[in-house]
């Protein structure tokens, strides 16, 4: 085993790797950017080395600086986590050249799986079923269109260099093939510098089921499957293991295919083979097809750890340090069922826009495994993935594990940024999901119900008003009569209510309509219902957790003034992100709807368009700039002002 390793990552995954190292007595070296000086992973590691500026290209992607940090601190090996340098074969080569061990597969194994077309060809050769389609070299328009006809519509055009759901286009009708091909190619060129595509049969009711594999460079075992069908725009939201409805025959077939895939490329370490399954056909041993292989530890690996009792990071360290595979296939078993939910700083009703903010309050429950890279008081910065935590539960059955997930999410408290917590809770209560009827279209189909708010939701707001009024403090609320005046207007960012104190422990809070509030028996009651919600007062305001989550921020008169002054002609960034391109120059005339700039955030591109006619007075952002939510990007003046 190693004495000391460097972790070339940040956030929850860096912390999670440090946890295992501690248990194994391995010393740890963290690296950090300017934005992460006070980050949790830095505080947890035995040593930490600063590697550059906040942009990933200036720090976490600087292989040379990271290798230098490892050598300077005497680390023997580098763990890449996921994302960043984890699937970069040139980095793997450089680590080896520096006399260090890369905790992961060989550069050649990563290269073999790096492009989807070559990977599919390789898998076909190894006898692994691949999604029917065309993944050849001829990229001519007419040839691709003819291949699509042969495959049969609907088809899916995919960038061969794709990842993160980019460069994919579903085409339902041959008449739209040419235009979809052009747009997939240009997105692929922009994102990956490679316009090549492949074409697949579009599976109509797809389930995403992946196999966790682990190799020692020669042999591989599988650690069963994970179902990641609960996705939004091809990004995973809740994952589980084992897959609902999985049969022993299908599991054996998928496990054999996945270990064959790993052994075909001499795979070493943890990896994931992703398959697509047609849910319309049920789970049949001949009804799954290889999509791609991720040659790293996967975000959702904890569900596998929960059902197998294995620490995958420990296995990674053991195998990378020269030990043989820690277990044989017949030693492995599944115990119970596990779920993982990805808690993000994002504005769900606004279309899942990534958010930032300082976490003025953060509390996780004891009844779940929590993987996080932040603490109360830490910021979710615009520079990195806005994940706050992964909430993982395990139970003897799927139903108990799902109930445990629901409860753990209800017990989770985050304030200071909007989050997807309500959305995740709604998902755990979705009737189809509860029955195990999952497919990748579930979230889109039921989006309105999942993000809609029921009329009874006013209750959380009522409790928030009580908090804002200063009545939630246990020292105070029994004596509501002492409050003056008896009738007050309570205002917060985005709303007002009227509070009337009626007597000891009794008040009315009027929102759209009056609500009766009582403090009785040590609990709050709203409109006669006992409230299980928790009112939390924190530096940024008042939050109510345990039901619908609401945050009430005290009014800031200055902020309100700025918001009201919408006539400043400024186009602002609606979310933190990277300016991809700017399409106007100073002095240029634009009309409402013209594209001004393209912003990339959460692996997606968003066009920012002119909201009115005008002249571009100033261009305040350049391609490549990382901007915060609200940052001014373009200033327009009226044509008359020239
Ligand atoms: P997984 O199946 O493990 O979730 P993903 O492809 O969603 O795999 O990516 C895992 C992580 O890698 C993400 O959470 C993110 O941090 C990083 N990542 C992957 N692709 C991108 C990308 N295109 N841009 C930025 N980060 C990415
Ligand atoms: P990425 O590298 O972007 O993760 P994948 O090939 O893994 O790309 O596909 C991402 C997601 O797109 C899958 O999880 C699945 O939801 C969907 N998908 C991929 N291929 C197909 C297909 N042939 N038919 C239907 N859906 C698909
Ligand atoms: Mg994928």
TrEMBL record:
<dbReference type="InterPro" id="IPR011764">
    <property type="entry name" value="Biotin_carboxylation_dom"/>
</dbReference>
<dbReference type="InterPro" id="IPR005481">
    <property type="entry name" value="BC-like_N"/>
</dbReference>
<keyword id="KW-0547">Nucleotide-binding</keyword>
<dbReference type="InterPro" id="IPR011761">
    <property type="entry name" value="ATP-grasp"/>
</dbReference>
<dbReference type="Pfam" id="PF00364">
    <property type="entry name" value="Biotin_lipoyl"/>
</dbReference>
<dbReference type="InterPro" id="IPR050856">
    <property type="entry name" value="Biotin_carboxylase_complex"/>
</dbReference>
<dbReference type="InterPro" id="IPR011053">
    <property type="entry name" value="Single_hybrid_motif"/>
</dbReference>
<keyword id="KW-0067">ATP-binding</keyword>
<keyword id="KW-0436">Ligase</keyword>
<dbReference type="InterPro" id="IPR005479">
    <property type="entry name" value="CPAse_ATP-bd"/>
</dbReference>
<dbReference type="InterPro" id="IPR016185">
    <property type="entry name" value="PreATP-grasp_dom_sf"/>
</dbReference>
<dbReference type="InterPro" id="IPR006594">
    <property type="entry name" value="LisH"/>
</dbReference>
<feature type="domain" description="ATP-grasp">
    <location>
        <begin position="120"/>
        <end position="321"/>
    </location>
</feature>
<dbReference type="Pfam" id="PF00289">
    <property type="entry name" value="Biotin_carb_N"/>
</dbReference>
<dbReference type="InterPro" id="IPR001882">
    <property type="entry name" value="Biotin_BS"/>
</dbReference>
<dbReference type="Pfam" id="PF02786">
    <property type="entry name" value="CPSase_L_D2"/>
</dbReference>
<keyword id="KW-0092">Biotin</keyword>
<protein>
    <submittedName>
        <fullName>Acetyl/propionyl/methylcrotonyl-CoA carboxylase subunit alpha</fullName>
    </submittedName>
</protein>
<dbReference type="InterPro" id="IPR005482">
    <property type="entry name" value="Biotin_COase_C"/>
</dbReference>
<feature type="domain" description="Lipoyl-binding">
    <location>
        <begin position="562"/>
        <end position="637"/>
    </location>
</feature>
<feature type="domain" description="Biotin carboxylation">
    <location>
        <begin position="1"/>
        <end position="448"/>
    </location>
</feature>
<dbReference type="InterPro" id="IPR000089">
    <property type="entry name" value="Biotin_lipoyl"/>
</dbReference>
<dbReference type="Pfam" id="PF02785">
    <property type="entry name" value="Biotin_carb_C"/>
</dbReference>
<dbReference type="InterPro" id="IPR011054">
    <property type="entry name" value="Rudment_hybrid_motif"/>
</dbReference>
């Amino acid at each position: 085993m190693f004495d000391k390793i460097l972790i070339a990552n940040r956030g929850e995954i860096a912390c999670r790797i440090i946890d295992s190292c501690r248990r194994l007595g391995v010393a740890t070296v963290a690296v950090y950017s300017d934005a992460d000086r006070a980050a949790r992973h830095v505080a947890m590691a035995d040593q930490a080395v600063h590697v550059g500026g906040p942009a990933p290209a200036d720090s976490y992607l600087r292989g040379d600086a990271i290798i230098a940090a490892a050598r300077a601190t005497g680390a023997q090996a580098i763990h890449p986590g996921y994302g960043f340098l984890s699937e970069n074969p040139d980095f793997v080569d450089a680590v080896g050249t520096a006399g260090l061990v890369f905790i992961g597969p060989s550069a050649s194994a990563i290269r073999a799986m790096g492009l989807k077309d070559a990977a599919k060809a390789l898998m076909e050769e190894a006898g692994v079923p691949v999604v029917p389609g065309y993944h050849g070299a001829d990229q001519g328009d007419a040839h691709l269109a003819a291949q699509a006809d042969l495959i049969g519509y609907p088809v899916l055009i995919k960038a061969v260099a794709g990842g993160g759901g980019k460069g994919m286009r579903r085409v339902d009708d041959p008449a739209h093939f040419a235009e979809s091909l052009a747009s997939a190619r240009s997105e692929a060129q922009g994102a990956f510098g490679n316009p090549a595509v492949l074409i697949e049969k579009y599976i109509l009711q797809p389930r995403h089921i992946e196999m966790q594999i682990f190799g020692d460079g020669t042999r591989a075992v599988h650690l069963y499957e994970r179902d990641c069908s609960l996705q939004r725009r091809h990004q995973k939201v809740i994952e589980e293991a084992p897959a609902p409805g999985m049969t022993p025959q299908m599991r054996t077939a998928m496990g054999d295919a996945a270990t064959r895939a790993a052994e075909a490329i001499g795979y070493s370490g943890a990896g994931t083979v992703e398959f697509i399954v047609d849910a319309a056909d049920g789970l049949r041993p001949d009804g799954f097809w290889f999509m791609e292989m991720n040659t790293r530890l996967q975000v959702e690996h904890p569900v596998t750890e929960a059902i197998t009792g294995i620490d995958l990071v420990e296995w990674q360290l053991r195998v990378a340090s020269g030990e043989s595979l820690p277990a044989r296939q017949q030693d492995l078993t599944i115990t119970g069922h596990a779920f993982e939910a990805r808690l993000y700083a994002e504005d769900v009703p606004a279309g899942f826009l990534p958010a930032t903010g300082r976490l003025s309050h953060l509390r996780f429950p004891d009844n779940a495994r929590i993987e996080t890279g932040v603490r109360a008081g830490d910021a979710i910065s615009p520079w990195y993935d806005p994940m706050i935590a992964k909430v993982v539960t395990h139970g003897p059955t799927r139903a108990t594990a799902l109930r445990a997930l629901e409860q753990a999410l209800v017990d989770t408290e985050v304030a200071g940024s909007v989050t997807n917590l309500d959305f995740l809770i709604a998902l755990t209560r979705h009737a189809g999901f509860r029955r195990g009827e999952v497919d990748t279209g579930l979230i889109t189909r039921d989006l309105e119900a999942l993000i809609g708010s029921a009329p009874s939701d006013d209750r959380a707001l009522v409790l928030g008003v009580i908090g804002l009024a200063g009545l939630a403090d246990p020292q105070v609320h029994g004596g509501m009569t002492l409050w003056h005046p008896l009738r007050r207007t309570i205002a917060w960012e985005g709303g007002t209510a009227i509070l009337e104190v009626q007597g000891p422990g009794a008040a009315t809070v009027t929102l759209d309509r009056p609500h009766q509030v009582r403090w009785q028996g040590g609990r709050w009651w709203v409109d006669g219902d006992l409230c299980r919600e928790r009112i939390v007062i924190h530096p940024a305001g008042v939050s109510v957790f345990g039901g619908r989550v609401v945050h009430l921020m005290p009014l800031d008169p200055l902020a309100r003034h700025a918001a009201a002054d919408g006539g400043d002609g400024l186009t602002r960034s609606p979310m933190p992100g990277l300016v991809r391109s700017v399409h106007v120059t100073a002095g240029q005339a634009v009309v409402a709807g013209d594209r001004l700039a393209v912003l990339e955030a959460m692996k997606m591109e968003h066009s920012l368009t002119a909201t009115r006619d005008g002249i571009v007075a100033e261009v305040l952002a350049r391609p490549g700039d990382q901007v915060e939510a609200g940052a001014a990007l373009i200033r327009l003046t009226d044509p008359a002002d020239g």
